[in-house]
Records
---
Amino acid sequence: ECYKCGAQKMCYMNSVHPMETHDMAAVDETTGRVIGGEALDDEFNRRILPPTNPRKRGRPESNRRESQTQGVRVKRCSKCGEPGHYKNSCKNPRADFADDDEG
C-alpha cells in the first residue's frame, strides 16, 4: 500500500522547500561561476568543479586484458613436470625421486 503512487504523493506533498534570501549565493548558468552572497569574496568566486573520486580501499583491480593473439598457457604439474594436469590430481611419482632411483 505504501509503495503505490498515490501514497508517495501524499507523503511528499508537504515537503520543505528552500527559501531564497537576499544574501544567498547563486550559480551563473552561462559561466558556471558563483555569484552573490555576503560572505563570498573574489578569492572564493570560482568555478564549481565536480567532486574528486577518492581511491577505493584495498588492493587495486588489475587492468590487464588477455591479448587475442596470445596463446593458451599449458597447465604443468609442479610434482612431475608433465603438462595437462596439476599437482592435486597427479598420479605420477615425484620427478626428483624417480631420478634418484635410476642413478
---
Amino acid sequence: MRMLDPHSKVSIEDAIKNENVPGELIEAKSCSMISRAQVSDTSLGKSEWRYGTNKEQAACNADNLLVMERLDRVSLPGGGQSKSGARVAQRIRNDQYRTPGTTKDSGGNGGCLFIDLRMWNEDKHTSPQRVEAFVVASYILMLKREADRFIDNHLALVV
C-alpha cells in the first residue's frame, strides 16, 4: 500500500504500476502464521488491525468485531501520553449493521466502521483527514484478506 501526498496529481494506474511515484510505501505484516492480525508501521505511527476478543464483542453487542489500535505512545493535548493500544477504529457486525438479506455466516455481510480521530486533532505534523484515509485504506486491505480467507476455506471444503 502506498500513502501519497494529499496534493499529488497521480492517476490510479500510475500509483499502482509506477514504483517511482513519491509517497510512503506501507507494508501490512501478519503478526504470526496463525493470527489474522496485521501490523503497519507508518509515519502516522505503528498500528494493528486485529479481531476483537469475546469480551470486546459482547461489550459492543457484535457478532464480529475488527479493531484498529495505535501501538505507539503519543503526547496528548494538555499533557500526558496515550496508552499503547489506544483504539483508533472498529468495525462492528451485528443485526443492526448487517447488510439486509445476509446472515452472520454469509460472506460480505456488511458492518459499520467507526473511526476516532481525536488523537490527531492537535497534531501539527499530520491532518485527521490523512489518518482517516489511511484507516479506511488499511481497513479495505483487511476486508480483502478476509475475503481471500473465506474463498480459500470454501475451496478447501470442495477439494
